[in-house]
Write a structure and sequence with these properties.
The structure holds 2 protein chains of 2 kinds. By secondary structure, chain A is mainly alpha-helical. Chain A contains 11 helices and no strands. In chain A, helix 4 packs across helix 5 and helix 9 packs across helix 11. In chain B, 55% of the residues lie in helices and 11% in strands. Chain B contains 6 helices and 3 strands, in the order H-H-H-H-H-H-E-E-E. Chain B has a 3-stranded antiparallel beta sheet with strand order 1-2-3, with helices on one face. In chain B, a hairpin with a 4-residue loop joins strand 2 and strand 3. The N and C termini of chain B lie far apart (91 Å). Classes of the chains: A mainly alpha, B mainly alpha. Chains A and B meet through helix 3, helix 4, helix 8, helix 9 and helix 11 of A and helix 1, helix 3 and helix 4 of B.
């Protein structure tokens, strides 16, 4: 029986068991199942293909090395996703892009976004196809600072709680709440702006 | 509405309040249209995002991705692999004697070789007959082989200390 066929019907939990015993073919199957999500998460945080590829692979290497520590408290995909998120956060910290963010934080503190334009969220079913809406959301998110984009990703896409985000981002819960509030309002404004441009 | 009020509405939306606080905010939303509007706006953008997470397709083929990953795994394993444990030698009685005899035998042999240039050929052998003589000495039990060539002007000693 071919190796691929043997593993393709197995659940993640069983594949993890095999891989914990050194079975590389089982690990390859896990990579095949989840590599797209892991890469996409890295890209969403870094906005750079090369860096996302590099760190997504680094996450798999770390997962292989630490596989025996995985106790199954969460799903495997949640575990490997946390690994890539932490790698990305470390990477972003190293890059020290403080200067560009400081401008946006000043704007956040002054509540500038809320004064700029009303919240006008496009209705996906009536105005935009789902794929097009995804593309626009992606574009709008690329215009957020790394700190605001990250908190949005961790909360909305990874469903992490405030305290988990605070721990991962090494900041207070209050900062997380403030950044999340600003990021939501800013994103809504950007999406409204994109809609308006389309109408012109 | 203060910044604190806004963050409290958001926390209510995200389920981040304890039950008592949540009840308070719920009552407040019932009676405050501005607060209710903010709650709705935040909820809409949250739901929109969760339903339309942007996709980022892998920019390389799956085979290439796995191949590159395999290389990194191999490198990582080479870096983190523990050093091989030293193999313990079992000293059998014969091996135990060899442990001491081999170095001693080597020392004796070395002394012999050093003295060879000073030794004269046997008188009954003519000088011409001695030229080009090659001497090979084999001691099977000692695993020591010597080879001497006067024509080449060299002496070679090979000591095998392995079984």
């Amino acid at each position: 029986m071919p190796v691929e066929k043997k593993y393709s019907s197995e659940r993640d939990e069983a594949l993890v068991d095999y891989a914990q015993q050194g079975d590389m073919a089982a690990f390859e199957e896990l990579v095949g199942r989840h590599r797209d999500k892991i890469y996409a998460r890295a890209f969403s945080m870094l906005r750079n293909e090369d860096e996302a590829l590099d760190l997504s692979q680094e996450a798999w290497v770390k997962a292989w090395q630490r596989l025996r520590q995985f106790q199954g408290d969460s799903s495997f995909v949640t575990w490997i996703t946390r690994i890539v998120i932490n790698l990305c956060l470390d990477h972003l910290r190293r890059q020290k892009r403080q200067l560009s963010e400081s401008f946006e934080l000043i704007e956040e503190e002054g509540g500038g976004v809320e004064r700029q334009m009303p919240i006008e969220i496009p209705n996906p079913t009536a105005e935009l196809e789902r794929e097009e809406l995804r593309r626009r959301i992606d574009l709008a998110m690329s215009q957020l600072s790394e700190a605001h984009r990250t908190v949005l990703i961790l909360h909305e896409f990874e469903q992490m709680e405030y305290k988990e985000i605070a721990k991962a981002m090494k900041c207070s819960i209050g900062t997380v709440m403030s950044r999340l509030f600003y990021a939501r309002r800013r994103l809504a404004s950007l999406l409204s702006g994109l809609k308006r441009e389309e109408l012109l | 509405m203060t910044s604190s009020d806004k963050l409290k509405i958001q926390a209510f939306l995200d389920g981040g309040l304890d039950p008592a606080e949540a009840r308070q905010v719920a009552e407040w939303l019932d009676h405050n249209p501005e607060a209710r509007q903010l709650h709705q706006d935040l909820g809409r953008i949250r739901d929109l995002l969760r339903a339309h997470e942007p996709q980022a397709p892998l920019p390389v083929t799956p085979d290439y991705y796995w191949s590159a990953l395999q290389s990194r795994l191999a490198s990582a394993q080479a870096e983190t692999a523990p050093a091989l444990p030293l193999r313990r030698i079992r000293w059998t009685p014969v091996a135990w004697w060899w442990k001491y005899l081999a170095p001693a035998g080597g020392a004796v042999l070395l002394a012999l070789l050093v003295s060879l240039p000073f030794m004269q050929p046997a008188p009954e052998i003519a000088e011409t007959e001695y030229q080009g003589l090659e001497v090979e000495t084999v001691w099977p039990e000692a695993r020591i082989v010597t080879y001497r060539s006067d024509t080449e002007g060299i002496s070679v000693v090979w000591v095998n200390t392995q079984d």
